[in-house]
Please model this.
Amino acid sequence: MSFPVAAPAALPTVVVRPGEADRILSGHPWVYNGSILRLTQPAADGDLVQVKDHRQRLLGVGFYNSKSKINVRLLDTDRIEVSATFFETRIREAIAIRKRHLPKATSFRVVNAESDFLSGLIVDKYEDVLVVQTSSLGMDMRKAMITQALKKIFSPRAILERNEMSSRKFEGLPEIQGVLAGENVSDLTVNMNGLKIAVDLAGGHKTGYYLDQQVNYQSVASLAQGANVLDCFSFLGGFGLHAARAGAFRVLGLDQSEDAVKAATKNAVVNKVSDRCAFEAANVFDWFKQQTTVGPHEKIVPRYDMIILDPPSFTRNRASVPDALRGYKEIHLRALKLLKRGGTLATFCCSHHVSATMFQEVILAAAFDAHRVVRRVATYTQSPDHPVLPSIPETEYLKGFAFEVAR
Ligand code: SAH
Model:
């Protein structure tokens, strides 16, 4: 005769207000402070709790944190036990999605938090090194279990922690960086669609690199045959190098970071495209202004066949959206002035707060001011290792378009 191992009913219960259950049932894993009716017994921050609706129906279990605005981050609709095995199973499910949609990739996002029902956890794979970010207290407290599961699945050379996100303060967590397992790796070369990109895992952006454009690099490059290309906000050269390999006539990449420009320049040499691919340190806004400022009787000479715009997010929150839109309009206006007729504008927006519709409206306003008419030839989204769950709007952030200058 067997007995139940744990007594899950003993979990503290968070009861949500009437009307709050539907969002959770549709798959959204966050329970906000304001949605909670009561707690049946005290719960420690970081503990597993169960969440019920006001009629006592179980909605799921998740990590509790009274310090965060998000009081509970749900993990499952059942009363699961959180162990290294739980993490192993869930991470293997996430890997299966990547294998299906990015079968050739060797560097990719293994776990994308809410997209993979692991709110608060990001794991990026850079060849044989894994980089982890834990943005919730519940996940942070379980780093050892997560590390154990990752070691079992991947046997990686190293597992690094890049937890310097300022958002961690909302969970009462410090900003830290370190090694969770293996050796301390900082420099590493990743394979992006067959190109070699040297990344700095200790100092680079996010967890070292932007993996979310892996598919778009190829799609955009397929339009670059014979083109004179301008790659704005080029970072390590992702778009420019792909364009050069795909047969661009010439590529100029611009980034304000001297380090990024140096690294991109080296990447061009390593990938044998430095004869037609150069990177320069410049503030894109200033550079555009300089290139598009002409005297009273002069005309701007459009000279690019393709301009790529992949700026950082100009928004931190909803309040900064109007300023961000002004920034987007400015760079699109100038880019459209520098594009030849028939040329391609490949443009991206990684701000969750700016929708694809808003983004396109800004581009159209810029086209109007630049006296150009554009033809939309492609729409882009984040690579499939950053899955979008429409019931969790926060999982969707990257949108992009390719427009041809029709007139
Ligand atoms: N396209 C890149 C990612 C760009 S990330 C890729 O595919 O990997 C944004 C980049 O914009 C960063 O490298 C940052 O240094 C740069 N940047 C931010 N503001 C800038 C500005 N005003 N002018 C030029 N570069 C800028």
User: Anything to note?
Assistant: The domain at 8-76 is CATH 2.30.130.10 (Archaeosine Trna-guanine Transglycosylase; Chain: A, domain 4). The chain has three domains: 8-76, 84-188, 210-405. Residues 97 and 276 are 37 Å apart (CA to CA). The chain has a mean pLDDT of 95.
